[in-house]
Amino acid sequence: MPTEYEITDHPAIEATGLTKTYGSTTVLGGVDLRVAPGSVFSLLGPNGAGKTTMVRILSTLLRPDGGQARVAGFDIVRDRHRVRRSISLTGQYAALDGLQTGAENLRMMARLSGLRGVAARRRADGLLERFGLTDAGRRRVATYSGGMRRRLDLAASLAIVAEGTPAELKERVAGQRLDLTLPGPREFGETARRLGDRATLCDPSALTLGVPTDGSAGQVRALLDEIDPERTLVAAFAVQAATLDDVFLALTRKGTPGKETTHV
Fold first, then answer.
1. pTM for the structure as a whole
2. The domain that contains 197 carries what CATH number?
3. Which of residues 52, 86, 120 is at a domain's end?
4. 104-159: pLDDT as tens digits
5. Residue 150 neighbours by CB under 8 Å, 6+ apart
6. Where are the alpha helices (DSSP H) in the chain?
7. Measured distance CA(82)–CA(12) in Å, rounded
């Protein structure tokens, strides 16, 4: 959940005795949870077990009735604004209205971001074109394929954050990504701390970090020399093409100058 890739001393998520009830129904009956920084954590349970309620509480969308929790080191009640600046939350499904058309969804997002009238319409039309959805723009989103929904969701997420064609957006981050595989957790943590916000990929389970590059041999060599001057940290590396997911993560993590950026 935390968007910062740097390994920190405090847990990414720490909850003690969280409770939530609706009338006579207890949804959470005193949940304790601890998630290590830089890790992937799965919350499993049957329907009605309280998974969604737990996520809503941890992302400050819902107040607990009892207990305490900290996310990225911040109290979810007392420091909820700082929590929101430190996390990004995406749901199981794209955050789109299936009853509206693609164009209507993007115009709505543009208006929520502060654009009005012609400006909102131009932004929506431009995003439809840049994500290859112009022909589908007048169709209801309920008729879209899964891939089209994903593209529209990314377009909506970038509706004030960035503007440009997919190729131009990728160039703003980097045309390529250098993926580094580290030999162990210690080396992974050390390299993650060294890279900080420069890392656009962080996969602790695979001990892999990714950094932007133009893909040229010279820059790849320079990055490897900078990150691993003694040639003892990096076990393997590969150059990959940047994706729109890389663009989304990089741009939303940096935010918009002069504005508080929350992605929920």
1. 0.41
2. 3.30.70
3. 86
4. 988 888 887 677 788 888 888 888 888 889 999 999 988 888 788 888 887 777 66
5. 94
6. 51-58, 80-86, 102-112, 117-130, 146-157, 166-173, 185-195, 217-227, 244-254
7. 14
